[in-house]
Structure formats: C-alpha cells, structure tokens
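tool=predict chain=A
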Amino acid sequence: EVCREKQEAAIPLVRLFLHYGRIVPFISAIANAEVKRTQDPNTIFRGNSLTSKCIDETMKLAGMHYLQVTLKPIIDEENLRQYVDRIFTVITKSGVSCPTVMCDIFFSLRESAAKRFQGDPDVRYTAVSSFIFLRFFAPAILSPNLFQLTPHHPDPQTSRTLTLISKTIQTLGSLSKSK
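tool=predict ok
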C-alpha cells in the first residue's frame, strides 16, 4: 500500500529478487499478507495488487520460453473449437514444463489460500488458476505479438478468433476443479 503505481514498483522488485534467487520467499510473504486481508475466497488474487503485479511480472520474465513452447506451435490455426480444445489440452498437459519458480510461487499461493479459507476446498485451485489462466495464458493468446509468439499483430480476422479463444480459456480457467 506504500505506492500507487503497483506496476512501476513490481518491475524492479521482481528483477531484483529474481536476480538474487529470492523471488519465491518475497512473493510468498506479500501473498500471505494479501490472503490475510481477503474476506471472500472468490476474489482471491483478482485485484491489481502489488502481489498480482509482481506475479504477473515474474510470469512474464520466467515464463516466456514456457509460453513459446506451449502455445507457439498452434497459434496460427483458425478453427475455433479445435483451437480451444488443443490450447486447453496443451496447457493442462504442460505442467511439467512450467518453470520451477512459477511452480514454487503457485504452490505457496495454493497453501496460503487453503490455510486462510479452510472451508472452501476449491480455493486452492482458483487462487492459482486466476494467475495461470487469466493473467498468463489468456493475455498471451489475445496478444501473441506482445509475448513474442508471433512477429507482428495478427490481422483482424485472426485477432477476433484469438479474442474468442482467450475469453474461452479465461472462462475455463475460472471454473473450479469440483465444477
């Protein structure tokens, strides 16, 4: 709560803590503080807090290669249903390729959320899926050029298709495991 521009604070903090190999303890600490302040498990990690901005930046830096390996091979196809099925499949099967630092952060988030909201068995999934689907994969699908998945912004037809796919992935990512 010290600064207004969370993104401006997140970028140097993440780079500093990544450089010194301390990003997981740092994010775990600020995530724990955020979880303790959260009253409703349905809103966990959904705001633009320092925690979410730091995790976004970490995913961008540590996960760029992961995104390219996972999404790039199929990013240029057009068939919407087939595309969504293939993307969702490659995402859900790519867990072993997820960078260790991201896995460690997600483990910490999951544990923190589960401890805080012990009566909600789904919070351990929704806390993580809000990052991996809503804030990592969906934006990369929506704007593949910003994540170096394509060399330039897609044409309008492809852009519309990618928008629909991104929204579908966000919806799938919002569903809890039990649902």
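DSSP finds eight helices and no strands in the chain. The longest helix spans residues 123-142.
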